[in-house]
From TrEMBL, chain A:
Coiled coil: none
GO molecular function: FAD binding; oxidoreductase activity
All residue ranges annotated as the FAD-binding PCMH-type domain in the record: 1-227
Name this polypeptide is given: Xanthine dehydrogenase family protein subunit M
Stored Pfam families: CO_deh_flav_C, FAD_binding_5
SMART domains: CO_deh_flav_C (SM01092)
Keywords assigned by UniProt, alphabetized: FAD, Flavoprotein
From TrEMBL, chain B:
UniProt name for this protein: Xanthine dehydrogenase family protein molybdopterin-binding subunit
Native species: Spirosoma validum
Domain Aldehyde oxidase/xanthine dehydrogenase a/b hammerhead intervals: 22-127
InterPro entries in alphabetical order: Ald_Oxase/Xan_DH_a/b, Ald_Oxase/Xan_DH_a/b_sf, Ald_Oxase/xanthine_DH-like, AldOxase/xan_DH_MoCoBD1, AldOxase/xan_DH_MoCoBD2, AldOxase/xan_DH_Mopterin-bd_sf
GO molecular function: iron ion binding; oxidoreductase activity
Keywords: Molybdenum, Oxidoreductase
The keyword ATP-binding belongs to this UniProt entry's keyword annotation: no
Amino acid sequence: MRPFTYTRAKDATSASKLLTGNPNAKFLAGGTNLLDLMKEDVERPSTLIDISELGLSDIKTISSGTNKGGISIGGLGKNTDAANHPLIRQNYPLLTQAILAGASGQIRNMATNGGNLLQRTRCPYFYEVAMPCNKREPGTGCGAKEGINRMHAIFGWSEKCVAVYPSDMAIALAALDAVVNVRNASGQERSISMADFHRLPGDQPEKDTILTHGELITSIELPRNNFADKSYYVKVRDRASYAFALVSVAAALETSGNKIVQARIAMGGVAHKPWRALKAEQLLVGKEATEANFKLAASAEMADAKPLEHNAFKVELGNRSIVLALQMAMNGGKA
Amino acid sequence: MKEKDKVVGTPISRIDGIAKVTGKAPYSMDHPVKNPAYAILFKSTIAAGTIQDINTAAAEKAPGVLAVITHKNVLKLNVKGGLRGGALLQSPEVDFFGQNIGIVVAETFEQARYASRLVSVTYDKKEPKVNFDKVADQARLPKDKEKADAERGDAKAALSQATIKVEEVYETPIEHHHPLEPHAAIAEWDGDKVTLYSSAQIVNGAQSAAAATLNLKPEQVRIVSPYIGGGFGSKGGQWANLALTAVAAKQVNRPVKLALTRQQMVNSVGMRQHNRQKISLAATADGKLTALAHEIVTHCAINDEFVEPCGDCSKIMYETPNSLITYRVVPMNLILPTYTRGPGKSTGSFALESAMDELAYKLKMDPIELRIKNEPERDPSNGKPWSSRTTVQCLREGAKAFGWDKRKPEPRQNSQGNYWIGYGVSAGTYPAHQRPTSALVKLKRTGDNVTATVELAAADLGTGTYTILTQTAADALGLSIQQINMKIGDSDLPPAAGAVGSVGAASYANAVNDACQKITDELVAKSGKQFFARPTAAQLMRSEKLTEYQTRVDSKAPESAEEYSAHSFNANFAEVAVNKSTGMIRVNRFLAVTGAGQILNPKTARSQIIGGNVWGIGMALTEESVVDPRWGNFVTRSFADYHVPSNLDIGNLDAIFINEKDEHVNSLGVKGIGEVGIVAVAAAVANAVFNATGKRVRDLPITPDKVL
Ligand SMILES: Cc1cc2nc3c(=O)[nH]c(=O)nc-3n(C[C@H](O)[C@H](O)[C@H](O)COP(=O)(O)OP(=O)(O)OC[C@H]3O[C@@H](n4cnc5c(N)ncnc54)[C@H](O)[C@@H]3O)c2cc1C
């Protein structure tokens, strides 16, 4: 670990100011991702601004604005608390499932909601500094594209980067059309939809999100919806717990009789950002909720996949996982 | 002593348990030394070539740095001293990715690690051999004579004439031991003597290898290893880090602590090699094996050879007139492979026992019946009688306990909701040996209270050695376990075998028992009395009013043991549930039935067996160390990427021991249990996956993508 200075911020604005003044400074929340990366010399901040004591951890009903009636989750709240809060369990069980499908109990107790959104890829070439990686060190090349890429992207990758984004929580948030609220050093706030928050790698894989340096995630808003009793998170992984997704699917349906009124599908483990399966969603709206229609929608979405040498299985797995998630959602999450 | 008071064979909890959970048991890095400095290794970032230049100037100037040691300024060491894997900084040559190329010593661990990042290295690179598929055809006969072609009858001819046969290739990937306690050592010099606090499965082996490497006499090196946080073979032979810690301490003239990071474990302390195994079986229509060929291709290090004995189970498990076992090995730019839990037997049995299952399916025979049908009277490899063999009993008792009769012979017949359920069986074996071990018993009496200190340089990997030896000594001396002080894990104590290859319990317990019997004999003789019933040493200390008495034995296996073929045997039963949509596999139930002679402590024995089972399930489903085929680095370097099974992957684990009395193996009738617990486990799981889904996966681990 490189030497660094450590400052504990007193409030959100001063935290952002401290950061903005120093291009090599970083916020420290739960530290479960950042500290690991520092130990491996991947992240090299010269200053850590500890934001873990800023508060910003409330979970409450939104009383005004576009998302009135929805729920707001503090950016510095812990993953465990978000997953288990009664307002979330009742209204957004999809989010509870997704959070609890990630990491381990101990890590979720430390991990914050903002930190979770900003966790970095698990690509092994990103993690080992002796390897080329455009995300870690732009211009060095992509080690994974012609290398071991079983875990990597099948959608939206570029010549520069084939990494996938690892969060489970964010996949549910994407399906639920969440909005991320951020604040910068001058106290300006902006709201970013989950769809826009993370980027595809393109020519700048070093940029995971559209955040600018110094912006602090203050809260995440979940708009009201009618998905609570028909949603499900499928996570396929190499072991039942404590592994990142090979493919995951967050699915939510609103039905009238057996007819689908609204559908939301987001996928994890397949792209550099939560992958909204918009094609599949569109195909489902207005249709009967049948296995045949689920299969049509899934294969329409997966038809666009571009697998790499070692991850062609993700196409078939994506197909099956979408169908399974939709079926489970229709069953109210029961097998 | 009355039978009911005996503690051997009772399930007492580990006597070191409380010290461990309260943090009082010192592991390698915990021993207090005065004013230690901290060292870290740094490693090559190429797999083959020569270091052209190594610039340490910036690292030397970094805060807290005491020394940067590379091949340019390291002490001269004996590379043939017996430490495994080379990487002793004695030359600029690089043979594998992540080879040690230097050490930074600093006031703190963080300073050392930071400074190690400041070293810059330029290399003359060579094209590395790191892709097994590309070089497998260059494999040659191993130098190790044990791996010469072994043939009985003419297996190839029998196979070419057979109509019913199975000929398949089975692959097991590279695995790492990854004990929770990474390899670490503290070195403290006192003049020309050095004490090394470091986990060692073979205390005396570590001592002699470290001494020879450091150009010292064994008595100049002391190994202190009271507790070991797991080893699984990686702490059997010792590796460069042990000597390099001593070198660092010498060069900075201070005690030095050097621990490997988890990421460094993948290229510092060996691994299990990738094995490509072809099994060919031929049988008559009623299931008699007419030929068994097991042909193994694997890899070793560029300059050193180690080949797992994958053919061992095939040698002795089944009767067949025609048998062939061959090994071929190709050197690669990867770290030297080494013994890994159930060496050869765990991997070889995956191939053999999968093939037996395939044959049973072909023959429409129950796989248990097929195995029993080919049960050998004597050891087929050498014609010796078995000291005892429990395969049939293990299979029969296991089948009953597991509910094998509920298995559907055809795959995809057992569906529960979105899951296919499948049952699998396998059988395995591991040799039983007693190795020379000495033990010293010291008795002391104060008033009526007699206590004993028992000393031997044995190792406790965390498996219960302290406990079973205390039990053994208590019964043999007529004392309670509280009156025994068991001292092990120190090369200053009488020399002992290693806790390797399942020889620990047999070697140590027999030595302790022999010492206790000897001291009793001596006390009887000393008393000059005749006794109607043999008194205990404790009674004699009191009756003869002795305050102190001690004796030592050098114990070894009875000579008659050589006349028998002695092995532990097991049968494994697995029930898996495979998700029809995702291919994710859960082991709902696993049962291991083991015949391992006298079980000294059913509780620690059970833990050993189910621990081995979890290892085997990991081998079957999750564990794989993946090498980048271009650069030779492992891409799975932490527990986030190297998957061992989690609690959710496994339901109920159960262990049954056959009540067996082996009269020939050694005087206590103890066989090993450390290794046999993993043997053939992967095959039972893979066979269950086939029974569930109809997919025969011959390439471990069976990840979801392979059963879609
Ligand atoms: C072994 C392991 C397994 C895991 N498995 C999973 C898994 O299966 N699924 C999964 O989803 N996750 C998994 N995780 C990741 C875990 O969820 C993240 O590490 C965690 O959510 C990060 O949160 P944190 O608060 O600790 O972030 P930190 O490590 O403190 O920060 C992460 C990044 O976010 C920035 N940051 C933090 N908070 C803010 C904020 N409010 N505003 C702006 N920037 C901020 C930091 O500067 C840093 O760059 C795993 C982690 C580990 C170590």
